[in-house]
Amino acid sequence: MPSKRQILVVDDEPSIRESMARLLKAAGYEVTTAQDGFDGLLQLRSEIPDVIISDLNMPQMSGFEFLSVLRRRFPEIPVIAVSGAYGSGDCVPGGVIADAFYAKGDHHPEELLRTVAELLRTRAERAMNHHRQSAPVWIPRNGKDSKGVPFIVLTCTECLRSFPLSVLHENLQEIQETPCLFCFTPVRYIIDFSLSVASPAEQLTAGKASV
Ligand SMILES: [Zn+2]
What we know:
Layout: E1 6-10, H1 14-26, E2 30-34, H2 37-44, E3 51-55, H3 63-73, E4 79-83, E5 100-103, H4 109-121, H5 123-132, E6 139-144, E7 150-155, E8 162-166, E9 176-179, E10 186-189, E11 191-192
Parallel strand pairs: 1-2, 1-3, 3-4, 4-5, 6-11
Antiparallel strand pairs: 6-7, 7-8, 9-10
Helix pairs in contact: 2-3
Zinc ion binds near residues 161, 182, 183 and 185.
């Protein structure tokens, strides 16, 4: 009896997390869950899953940023991006780094299971391609600090800690670099001002008990 394949589900909505976990467990997978990107990274320090399924629209660290950190730090893990805000993979903004996309409102759990099985089957060759890619960093602007200065939250790909950084030049949309606040590893990033990463409005999550 081979050991069970492990799936990490990252979603800020408990009902989605639980229904996905139920679905995957029923299909024979071992499932762990995380409530946002920070929580997901914390878990990755101790355990590496075979596949990650992540929501894109989450508070704290958005799925966009989480996936870009993942691809650079754990290129061997295939990921499925999940969202209720985009109807299909074609609508997802550029720069999102995922192997597959699943729209939350689709109600086709068998499709999700098929995708998971497909990623597990093609995992080795995907990992090779991931290693060859130089994944772009995707950093949303987070807001303004108490003095009204815009800031972003960067995540170090080496030590996986996150730290805020003031944005002094708003219109720079090119690769920048800053040392990690904790371990001093240079962190390369692009601030993307063009896309909103706010969680979708409440009505989009109505009927959220079903995936
Ligand atoms: Zn660091």
